[in-house]
Amino acid sequence: MKLGKVSIDNLRRILETVGLRAELDANPLSEEEVVSTNPAIGVPLKTLGFFAFHYTASNVAVAFAKPMYATLNVLGPPSTTDEEMEEVVKSFVAECRKYQVELRGGHTARYEGIEYPLAVSTIIGKRVRPRLNPSPGDKVYLIGTIGAESAWLLGKSIPLEEMTPLPNALKLMRFEQVKLLHDVSEGGVLGALLELSKHYGFIIKVTAPSMPTNKDLPRDFDPLTAPTYGALLAVTSSPQELEAVCRDEGVQCTSLAVIVGKGEGVEYKSKLYSEPLSTPLIELYNPYTPGDPELAQVLLAATMLIKIKDIERFIPEVGANIAYARRGASRTEDVVALDGRIVRTSKGARICGKPSYGSSRHLARVILQATRNNPDLRAAINLKPEPVLLKGLERIGLNPLEVKAVPSECPIEQALHEGSKALALYYRNLPNLEPSLVILGDDPVKLVELVRLALSNIGAQEKT
Questions:
Q1: The domain containing residue 393 runs over which residues?
Q2: pLDDT confidence of 78, banded at 50, 70, 90?
Q3: Same domain, yes or no, for 443 and 336?
Q4: Is the dihedral of CA 238, 244, 247, 250 positive or negative?
Q5: pLDDT in tens, 409-434
Q6: Which three-class secondary structure state does DSSP give residue 48?
Q7: N-term to C-term CA, the chain
Q8: Residues 125 and 193 placed together within one structural domain of the fold
């Protein structure tokens, strides 16, 4: 099942029977007021209150309304402490004070069935002016940069202020050169453009040859699909005037797209999209990896690995794992791995557990020995040394080395100790040891890409 927003198309008829007119971002409460409700989940506890406020307040602001009143529900598993609940409420209240929003009620509780804390906020805002519908020929501008949220999910240190569109929305709502605003969320810029397209019934064509992107967003990811909370889309019929407004207000803006005509979809790179493109970064919404690059990279790599076609054939009986060491690591506690491994099931490979430090003594010892030979070899993955995989690795230049039997708990660690420079090492037919292959590299995501390349065209490989 796909994570993230669920379309309300099937619910619209039911909602309309009770008088709800579903709008983009926030719904009308009266002629002068709008209301929005949003959950904050999958972020570290210390940021939960911040995002619970900004997700909803920003939806109100992009509807050209000033946030005025709020409620907050904080729910957690039975293990949630009073101090943790208090931390969430305190940070939410701090944002209310900063933006002069009155907190009028809420609920805090612990319940079975909740995996980790979540916060749901409702905010009512007073409308400053009405939105205007877009027209063919209108230009769509990107306000801000792409990928700050993605970089944060990947463990980079990004100020929270760079991951909210609220300040820019409050600035731009005052200017009539802006016909409408829409915030960018986990679906990325492409997802936000599609939401505009479907709501207003226009095809939108991306025209920008390049876009301002956070320097820490990996080049492997398409910027238009990267989670980008903090950016906005602004629609205008007066592009030069909008650019002048943005200059005067100190707001970064980039011409992004044009509204073409009636229909639905976003034209991007000569292809018409009707649904957002998936990205493995969506898996990084959780309370434990943002802000820690090693934890985030292991989870991302594991998520990408289990999506490789037929990968379950190469998962050992004891399970596979991916490990990544901090730079300068000297102890097994400095190495991240999955605390439950990747296992085979009747439905393919599955991730058990979550990344944590000190979770794989075996791979940690291999990495620590590898880094003594080469400090950049901080990542490792173990798989089953099937002939087709070994042949694929050889084809892409890794040349797997079969290590000899030695009186050691781990023959691969021993081979590295003896000075082996191989990046892929394996053993089989050793007493009391399941055959194992370990691939080494500087980055777990790159290791998974090597595995994917090695297994590409697997059918043709097996025929030769």
A1: 292-463
A2: very high
A3: yes
A4: negative
A5: 789 999 999 999 999 999 987 777 88
A6: helix
A7: 37
A8: no
pLDDT > 60? residue 1 = no
The predicted structure's pLDDT at residue 17: 76
* pLDDT tens-digit series, residues 55-64: 999 999 999 9
Chain segment 164-180, per-residue pLDDT in tens: 999 999 999 999 999 99
Cα(295)–Cα(354) distance, integer angstroms: 9
The answer to whether 114 touches 75, Cβ cutoff 8 Å, is: yes
CA distance 275 to 266: 9
Q: Is the pLDDT of residue 42 over 90?
A: no
Give yes or no: residues 299 and 258 share one domain: no
Check whether residue 54 and residue 23 sit in a common domain. Answer: yes
Q: How far apart, in whole angstroms, are the C-alpha atoms of residue 217 and residue 233?
A: 20
Instruction: Give the CATH number of the domain where residue 23 resides.
Output: 3.30.1330.10
Q: What is the DSSP letter of 396?
A: T
Q: Cβ distance 195 to 6 under 8 Å?
A: no
16 has which bridge partners?
Answer: none
Instruction: Please tell me the distance from the alpha carbon of residue 85 to that of residue 109, in angstroms, as a whole number.
Output: 9
The helices-and-strands tally (H runs, E runs) of the chain is 13, 21
Query: What is the rounded distance in angstroms from the CA atom of residue 245 to the CA atom of residue 248?
Result: 5
Q: What is the value of pTM for the model shown?
A: 0.84
Lowest mean pLDDT among 12-26, 63-77, 195-209, 232-246: 12-26
Which tokens in the block code for residue 83? 């101090």
Residue among 259, 258, 236, 260 at smallest CA distance from 246: 236
**Co-location of 39 and 172 in the same domain:** no
The owner of tokens 């009073």 is 82
Tell me the average pLDDT across 9-25: 75
pLDDT digit string, tens, across residues 318-362: 999 999 999 999 999 999 999 999 999 988 999 999 999 999 999
In a domain, 201, yes or no: yes
Let me know the angle formed at the C-alpha of 176 by 247 and 149, rounded to the nearest 5 degrees.
55
What is the C-alpha separation between 334 and 356, in angstroms, rounded? 10
Q: At CB < 8 A and 24+ separation, what contacts does 89-92 make?
A: 89/49, 90/49, 91/46, 91/47, 91/48, 91/49, 91/50, 91/53, 92/49, 92/50, 92/52, 92/53, 92/119, 92/121
